Amino acid sequence: MRRRRDARSGSRSYIWKTFMVTAFAVILVFLVSFPPVAADAISEKKEKAKAVERQLSALQAELNRLTSELNRTQSRIAAVEAKIESNQRQLEAAEAEYQKWKGILSNRIVAIYKEGNSLALDVLLECEDFDTFLNSYDFMSRIGNHDAEAIDAARNLMAEIKSRRAELESAKAEYQSYYRSLQSQRSAIQSKLNEQKALLAGLDREVAALLSSRYRGSSGGGGWNIGPVNGLYFPVAGPHSFVNDWGAPRAVGRTHKGCDVMANYGTPCVAITSGVVEQRSGGNAGLYIALHGDNGHLYYYMHLQGFAASGRVRAGQVIGYVGDTGNARGCPHLHFEWHPNHGGPVNPYPLLVALDR
Questions:
Q1: Taking a C-beta distance cutoff of 8 angstroms, is the pair 289, 279 a contact?
Q2: At what angle do helices 119-126 and 38-114 cross, to 10 degrees?
Q3: Which of 3, 176, 189, 334 is deepest in the core (most CB within 10 A)?
Q4: Cα-flanking dihedrals φ and ψ of residue 304, to 5°?
Q5: Number of Cβ atoms within 10 Å of the Cβ of 320
Q6: Which residues pair with 307 in a beta bridge?
Q7: Whole-number Cα distances in Å, 188 to 45, 191, 309
Q8: Got the DSSP string for 190-234?
Q9: Domain of residue 263, CATH code
């Protein structure tokens, strides 16, 4: 009886050992055939994140170049507009002065004719217009030295008017050329912003999590909050570009008193700091926000497409959306102003650069 029990026990032990050896062999074959993938997958995602960062950096560099060109074109347009306005005023003044001297000379011709000088009428009838008559030197040299001032003034004004008109036409052509460039540059900026947004939106969350803090959390939505840096957030939460355009010439002799952050329509704008938001509208600013920061400073967000929050807000909260209202039609961007201690505006560019990381 004992021998039979021992035999059964030995048989079970043999079967168990055989199973364990077989299982180990299967596991070993599996490990050899299918090596660990976790480490390789992580490495692959890191490499993809680096490649995406390089693409984003290249796009950002091109965006910054295009934005810089746009700013230069806007300044040139402002200069040409000022030249056109000045030329127009001077042309109108010259034409008014010319009409005055034309009247004086016309009265003088009538007086000469009444005195019995038929030559004046003969010359006048031969001329197509008064300008031709004025240049009839043979006659004009005979009407007396006391009319020389009127003749010289009229002739000089004729020459000035001709020159002003030519300059005006040239300036208008220059304006049209710059305006076409402006439209092209705006389209190029929007295209690059869309490329950046599409690239970010197409990332899976694991790759997006490996990006630098500037782009982290952007997968799916294409937007992100940059910050906080010393408690402050960058005001545009999405693909953007900007240059130091503080003080750049603008229309009607103005200079730029803020910084234009180029972005797509509807890109969220966030509170740079906690404070109280006032929603306003009107004039060149279109729809705009005044953010009275808890830090004592005032910030303006202009040309908005729409509002998102009013009253008390926290830092980083969405308060509006990028648009082109006011005098920004066709060029969506955020005009951002910084008024320290609620005083006059100062250049916000260094502040934005410090936050944009």
A1: yes
A2: 150
A3: 334
A4: -70, 150
A5: 28
A6: 320
A7: 31, 5, 31
A8: HHHHHHHHHHHHTS-HHHHHTS-TTTTT-TTTS------BTTB--
A9: 2.70.70.10
- Indicate the pTM of the whole model: 0.73
d(CA 295, CA 258): 19
What b/e string do you get for 88-124 counting C-beta neighbours within 10 Å, with b at 16 or more? eeebeebeebbeebbebbeebbeebeeeeeeebeebb
Q: Please tell me whether residue 333 adopts helix, strand or coil conformation.
A: strand
Location of structure tokens 């050899």: 32
- Model confidence band, residue 157 (pLDDT cutoffs 50, 70, 90): confident
Range of the domain at 194: 10-220
Q: Six-digit token pair at 101?
A: 């001297």
The answer to whether residue 4 is domain-embedded is no
Give backbone dihedrals phi and psi of 182, rounded to 5 degrees, phi first. -60, -45
Torsion angles phi and psi, residue 222, rounded to 5: 75, 10
> Is residue 36, in this structure, part of any structural domain at all?
yes
Read off the pLDDT of residues 277-321 as tens digits, 9 standing for 90 and up: 999 999 999 999 999 999 999 999 999 999 999 999 999 999 999
User: How far is residue 19's CA from residue 13's CA, in Å, rounded to a whole number?
Assistant: 10
